[in-house]
Every structure is written in structure tokens, then in C-alpha cells.
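Protein fold
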Amino acid sequence: MKWSDYMMEGSRRVGCNLDSSRHFAKQLTEAGFTNVHETIYKWPWGSWPKGAKEKLLGRWVRENFQDGIQGFSMAFFSRALGWSKEAVEVFLIDVRKDMRDKKKHVYLPIRVVYGQKPDDVQHGQANPDVAHHVEADHTQTEHTPVDHTQSGQA
């Protein structure tokens, strides 16, 4: 999707990497957290999925983005990429059309990353500020658990 490519480029130009969540597990590990876990959920973007639960989630994702896309886009497109406000608005018309196109099957990756502070492990206590357990999201469509303590990934 062209929009996401432009968003990524605009964010990089202003020093704000929109895909920084890809590095959260590594950053937690480097900061000394232990028992670091990462789960990646794939949420559909739009009402194209066949399952009722996935279709509803896809509608929520689409509606949230459609309602906020001008706000998400304007600063990056105008300040970082040099577009005029009018050019952004015209471009977003096509983006919104694409969002409603059921032929386009797009997923939005949602990452959940959590770990345990090293002091808590040493003392055998749980810290209420650190999520130790993430319950399965009943709205997920697919997920890929990644256990960074077992796989040696950091």
C-alpha cells in the first residue's frame, strides 16, 4: 500500500520510526529484562474476512483508520515529505477507497511484548508494573508467539 510506504518514509525523515515495535523484545532484553515474550497478532484491515469475528475486527480496524487517517498522515506528508494539504487530501480519497476494497486483503501486525525486571526474578517477586501474563485476545485472527528466552533471539 503506497500510503504505508509514504508514512514510513515521512516518519524516518523526522526521526520517528513507525515500525519500532519490531525491536521492542530486543530492547527489553538489552535493558536487562528476562522472560521476554513477544506475540504477533495479524488483524485484518477491512471486512473481507469470511469469519464473523474476523470480519468484525476488520471493520473496527478500518473504521479507526478511516476516522484518523488525515491526522495520522498530515504531519508526515506535509512537513516531512513536502506535500501540500490539498495534495494530501486528494491522495487520501484513494486510500480510503482502497481501504473499502474487499479484493485487497491487508493485515495489520499487532505486537504484544512483555518481560520481567531482573530484580523481580532475583527476589522471586512479581512487579505489578510489568505484564507477566497476556491473555489471548478473543478478537485475534492469527498469532505467532515468539519466546525470546528459549530461542536465543534477542
About this structure: The longest helix spans residues 52-80. The chain has a mean pLDDT of 82. The chain has six helices and three strands.
